[in-house]
Amino acid sequence: MPEAPIAGVVARVRRRARTRAALWSGAVGGATATAVSLAAMLTGLAEPTRLLWSATAGLAAGISLLWRGWPLTAIEAAGAIERAWPLDNLLITAVELGEQPRPVRADLHDEILRQAQDRIAALDVAGVVPLRQPLAVMLTVTAGTVAMLTLGAGGSGSSLLGRADVQAITRGIEAFSVAVTPPPYSGLAGDTWASPVQISVAAGSRVTLLVTTAAEGVTAEFAGRPAMALTRAGGLWTGEWVADQTTAVSLRPAGGDARDGQFLSVIVVPDLPPVVQVPAPGRDLTVSGSKGQITIEVDARDDLGMAALALRFTKASGGGESLTFTEGEVPLAITRVDARHWRGRAVWVLDGLNLSDGDVLVYRAVGRDRNPKGSPVQSEQYLVEVGGLAGAVGAGFALPAEEKKYAISQQMVIYKTEQLIASAKGAPAAGRGDGWLQQNQLLAVEQRMVRAEVVFLGGGEVQDEVEEAAHSHEVAEGRLENTGRAEMLRAINFMSLAEAQLNDGNAGAALVLEREALKSLERAFDRRRYFLRTLPDRSRIEPARRLSGDLKDARSWRREGHRPGAAPSLDQSRSLMRDLAMAAGSGAGIDAGLAARVAALDPAATSLQQAAVALASAATVETRGEAVWRAMQAVTAHALESLGSASTLPLKIDPLAGALADELVRSARGGKQ
Amino acid sequence: MSRHWLRLVLRTTAIAIAMAGVIDPVMTVSRQAPRRVVLARLASADTAAVESAVRAGLPGVDVSIRSRVDGRLPCDPGVPCIVLADGSIEAEIPSDVTGPLSVIELATPAGPNVEIRSVTATSVQRAAGAGLVRVTMTGEGMQGRRTEVRVLDGGALVGSASHEWSAGSEAVVDVPWWALAAGSRALRVEAVPFDGEATLIDNAVDVGVSIALDAVPVLVFDTRPSWASTFVRRVLEDDQRFRVEYRVGLAPGMDAATPAGRLDPRSLDAAGVVVVGGPEGLSARDVDLLERFVRTRGGTLILLPDRMPAGPVTRLLGRGWSEHLEASPAAVGSLRASETLRLAEAGPGDVTLGGVNGRPVMVLSPRGNGRLVVSGAMDAWRYRDADAGAFDGFWRSVVLEAGVLSASLRLEFAQPIAAVARPMPFVVRSQRMDPAAAERVWATVTCVAEATQVVRLWPGGAPGVFTGVVPGGREACQLQVALDDGSVVSGGLAVTAGASDTVSAVLARLVRAAHGSGGVVARAGEEQAVTSALASGLDPGAAPIPIRPMQSPWWMFPFVTALGAEWWLRRRSGLR
């Protein structure tokens, strides 16, 4: 072992060298970890995996470098000193003599040691093994490593390249949620959805959007209403509106384009009016005297909840032109089965109503649901006729007493048809001949006459009695439901069908229809209803007023031709279709913006809404392709509904066809001459 | 021979060879001409086996195998040609193919298959209305399956319909479609393939349509208020595809009308279709004007009588009409009517649009340049609400189709769609109430990404008729024709690189050409029938053949030998 001073210097150099090795190992390890972390972010690895790989690579690199640099012998230290501070190999010799003794003369050994000590006295060990640079590098690398590792913290595994791309170009929507508060009267509970594509809400609900984004603003673009700018509140962007009609919303961040947006389809479920019925007695009644009681039951149902139910009546007294009407209400005992289903029961005592012979009571149930904007809904009206004159109601508001004759006439048609069928019984259909057809057609004429009388009674020809009857549910949507009118229209319809069958010689089929017509007539007339929609009021031509005008006032009439406007959405549909075709071919551009455009064509069209939802929800290449095709089908079907019908009569007329026809005619005439 | 003379001979020989090479004389010799056959591939399937069979059946014959060139059959004039076809590739048959043309049809693989046999679409379509493509398909082994037929414009799906196959093997599907843009469009009509379909070459065909933005000008002229024409007018007024002007006579000297609703030559020049209600009220002058409108102007006149016609209009109607009143309506085509006028017998060229008991009731009669439509369904308007829109649809269809035929300046292409790079002929027709003695007309064509070119027009034989040819291109071209009176008409020609005709039509055309040229038609596997028929005729006999003897490279040998020998002798002689 060399002398103490030499040993001390060597030891210090060795310590500093190890420290430097440790610093470089740390720097390299940190740099390696940083590089691996960056690569992991670029490839979109999840954070735990990224951190694990970074740490492992960094540790491996650092430890391997430290392992190589740690062991530094005294002789190597002496060599390092000599390289930094030339001592003519004195120090190395001295250290070697100490580490690896060999036979050397003592005075020579001492002299070497003395000279080595003298020369290393002024040695600056820091200059031999500088630590400033490796320390600075290590600190820098460490700072960078920490920053890189924490940069990816909280990420969801999305590609750093992608996010950087988005962040460099646009700022997308990171998350959004929708809170729905139904109207208070509905009794429905509110709900919140995270990143929904489609929601269904009750009409009148308040819809609140909560958007998380780094963008400077967010705009909600609606289909069919003005756009809304969201406002910042507590780190989120919020906006709300009251949903009263189905719409589609495109959330677009400021500075962003269609692909950064989010799509939301809002389906509004309307509040249906209540359905009020009178199941008992459920028919018109006749009472012989002015006293008695009638038990009436009422049933009312609503989709959200009932608010009120009452039984009202109108008393019509008198006759001819001196009628008086008195309104009143019958006390109703209401049983609430649940909030949406109420039942009422009333025992109506007629004694206190001062009824006299010939009076008529018209009663109906009236219900209202909880919707403050809703209107009362009335049930079917029923009559209670008082006294012996119950069958003869006065003109002006009831049917004439001879209404039975129409049923009898229809009965006669039925009777004659039965007789005709009976007379032909046993004869094959093919052998019945023209006489059979003629007799059927004669019956058809009679049926037509009866039908015409019934039509006249109803106030005139209806546009299409079949359509009328089929759409009678429209008036039941919330207001009045006049089944008497519907029964009469049904009867007319059956008569028309029976007439058609008789014209074709199908007496058997016609008989079935004739009987149905009779049943409908009986139902209509037995109730003696008000026909509130049509009251015959024929204007008569007054001969005295004819030809009394001044001809000087007669003028020709000029007007501009009628020019129907183009369907407003047609150009939009065409533009959208071209973009859909491009998206189908390239696979690009299938995003929330495209979905919003599809929905915006017609928010009320279910097929378009579904196609838009499919576009916004598609996540894979295959589903995107299917969604685009589905959208094209929906847009095409929607466009075809608004376009004029196609020509179904291809006329291929040769340009020379006319000349040929003229020549043939001329030739024929010349031949005849 | 002395060396001097020998050297002279050798040098002279070399010089003579060189000079003969420069002159390169031609000589004609009579030799047996080579036997040649051209084998044209017009099939998507592999034809190697058939080609081998043909070669084997024609030993000693030079068989050249070629594919389609510039859309034309690659057959040489006077040389027998064998076409291998499966119908998937069309080719124009050159007019100079004089040798026998034989066809070998390649069989389609066995198995379930849907084939499109024909596609019909109106060539001119209005942008404001839907179009209809009628597709006729046959299905093999398709019972219980479902086929979707699509109409595509570019990559956009513009129409689709589906068909459930039952026991029958033929189906007709009407596919409604809509136009994405104006101009000429190439629509692809395809039956969507299914897994395991035998072949896909017959599943698609391209059709050309021209989409017009303008409306059909219609003039409705009622001599008195008429229910029939009123409801027809309302049907047309509610549709963007029509521009309706009208005039209704209310009383002597009094009428209700739109500003342009007049019965005069100028209005009739502008209108393509004229609808007349109460025709018995037409004067002789009116009838003359309308007759000129039909025969000279080429318009379409629709008469809507509501009683047995009388007066000057009977000159237009002709004889043979009788009135029939029934208690209940009868079907008249797609309409219903109980009061009808029936024609005893249709005339030459007449088209019956609806009849009762075999007698025409609604008749279209070509007259001169135009056509007359008489609607004998006098009270069809009464039943218009009970026919599911048939009344509206019928009149719109008639006026739409008539409007195309009745334009005062029309542009017609021979085919609505052309193959790439194939020139397409067209015809321009100018028809007016008062034809001009002389007309100036010019035409220009603009193709995508190319400059506008002038197209030369030639008189077409009849007054107001001109013909021309649009040069073939790779993209759709727009042709514009203008007259000196300011009238302009534009039309486009769709271009397709795909199939513009069905497989069966392509094969039928080839078979017809084969039969017409004296060739043989056979199926794959029956190549011997073709080769044996051809072999007997493949003896072109001796023919004069020009040869150039000096073009043979072997002359180099004697040339070099002579020169070399001459040089050796000179050296032997001590000469330089």
Describe what this molecule looks like in 3D.
The complex is a heterodimer of chains A (673) and B (576). Chain A has 673 residues and is an alpha+beta fold. Chain A has 5 domains: 4-151, no CATH class; 170-269, Immunoglobulins (Immunoglobulin-like); 282-391, Immunoglobulin-like (Sandwich), CATH 2.60.40; 401-526; 569-642, no CATH class. In chain A, 45% of the residues lie in helices and 20% in strands. In chain A, the strands form 4 sheets. In chain A, strands 12, 14, 15, 18, 19 and 20 form a 6-stranded mixed beta sheet that branches. The longest helix of chain A is centred in the N-terminal third of the chain and has 40 residues, at 4-43. Chain B has 576 residues and is α/β, with parallel strands linked by helices. Chain B has 5 domains: 3-26 and 551-572; 31-108 and 502-542, Rossmann fold, CATH 3.40.50; 113-212, C2 domain (Immunoglobulin-like), CATH 2.60.40; 222-405, 3-Layer(aba) Sandwich (Rossmann fold); 409-496, Immunoglobulins (Immunoglobulin-like, Sandwich). Chain B has 10 helices and 34 strands. Chain B has an 8-stranded mixed beta sheet with strand order 16-15-14-17-18-23-22-21. Chain B has a 5-stranded parallel beta sheet with strand order 3-2-4-5-33, with helices on both faces. In chain B, strand 14 (216-222), helix 3 and strand 15 (242-251) form a beta-alpha-beta unit. The longest helix of chain B is centred in the N-terminal third of the chain and has 21 residues, at 3-23. Chain B starts with a helix and ends with a helix. Classes of the chains: A alpha+beta (673), B alpha/beta (576).
Question: Biggest sheet of chain B: strands side by side, in what order?
Answer: 16-15-14-17-18-23-22-21
Q: Please state roughly what percent of the residues of chain A sit in beta strands, choosing from under 5%, 5-15%, 15-25%, 25-35%, 35-45% or over 45%.
A: 15-25%
- Quickly give the structural class of chain A: alpha+beta
Radius of gyration of chain A: 49 Å
What CATH architecture label of the largest domain in chain B applies? 3-Layer(aba) Sandwich
